[in-house]
Amino acid sequence: MILIDSHCHIAGPEFVDDLPAVIQRARDAGVVQALTILAGEDADELGRAATVAELWPEVRFAIGVHPHAAGVFAPDPAAAARTVEAALDRQPLSRALGEIGLDYHYDHAPRDVQQAVLRAQIQAARRRRLPIVIHTREAEADTFAILEAEGASEVGGVFHCFTGDTAMARRAVEAGFHVSFSGIVTFPRAANIQEAAADVPLDRLLIETDSPFLAPVPHRGGRNEPARVSHVAACVARLRGTSVETVGEASAANFRRLFNP
Fold first, then answer.
1. Is residue 258 within a helix (H) or strand (E), and if so which, with residue range?
2. Tens digit of pLDDT for each residue in 122-144?
3. Which domain holds residue 30?
């Protein structure tokens, strides 16, 4: 079985002590590749990417300014894009710009600043012809409006850790994006997300862990890691009435087509 974790944070401090073991467990579970997300403004995390790549040569990276960090760039939102582009230039294994987006649940940054930083980064992605990794929480209308206004369909990308309903998933697909499901899809009360996972076209489906966050059932509450994308694949397969192999192979093909790893 072939699996790809389309979104993880294994360059984060949570994995410093046992990264080799984490990667070995991923390989043992059939995970052949992963997209590791790097915070464009975090010099320490950007530096740890070299260790990740050395230990797991098949890994690829996405770099962006998360909406939680957008406030850092409040005086000059365009500086977020310049910061990310400089980081992309230093990381030859980068294949996407992200994660970027809007988060109105926590509002760690003012909403107008989040929007301006998102716009600047979409513009950078278009300049570089890179797909984007979208984070959106309680901000559906503004997210889609900005994606359309900034021509994001030209580069496409993925709505990561999807937590919307079927209608939102269909809207994402119609906008030219893939839809990625995390361990949340395994949660008993995630009926809307499960319905969406059963509905998304197979050629737009991705799976992820969002490690170290959102460990799937039966590991809920602990640190997540890429090996556990197998539980996401198994759950999505059950929801779709198909095999784990079918979900794994299709999502891997979609990953490779989108990110050109």
1. helix 244-259
2. 999 999 999 999 999 999 999 99
3. 3-259
Angle at 165 between CA 164 and CA 168, to 5 degrees: 75
Helical axes 111-128 vs 140-149, angle rounded to 10°? 40
Q: Give the neighbor-by-neighbor strand order of the sheet with 205-207.
A: 3-8, 31-39, 60-64, 94-103, 132-137, 157-159, 177-181, 205-207
14-45 burial, b for 16+ CB within 10 Å, e for fewer? Answer: bbeeebeebbeebeebbbbbbbbbbbbbbeeb
How far is CA 127 from its chain centroid?
A: 20
Q: Which tokens hold the place of 128?
A: 């570089």
Domains contained in the chain, number: 1
Residue 10 main-chain phi, psi, to 5 deg: -80, 0
Q: What share of the chain is helix, strand, coil (3-state, %, to 5)?
A: 50, 20, 30
Q: Distance between CA atoms of 107 and 46, rounded to whole angstroms? A: 25
CB atoms inside a 10 Å sphere around CB 258: 21
pLDDT at residue number 46: 98
98: number of CA atoms within 13 Å, CB side?
29
The Cβ of residue 107 has, within 10 Å, a number of other Cβ atoms equal to: 15
Contact 41, 67 (CB under 8 A): no
CB-based contact 134:158 (threshold 8 Å):
yes
Residue ranges in the chain whose pLDDT is less than 50: none
Helix H or strand E encompassing 181 = strand 177-181
Q: What are phi and psi of 18, to 5 degrees?
A: -140, 30
Q: What pLDDT does 261 receive?
A: 84
Question: What CATH number does the domain containing 13 carry?
Answer: 3.20.20.140
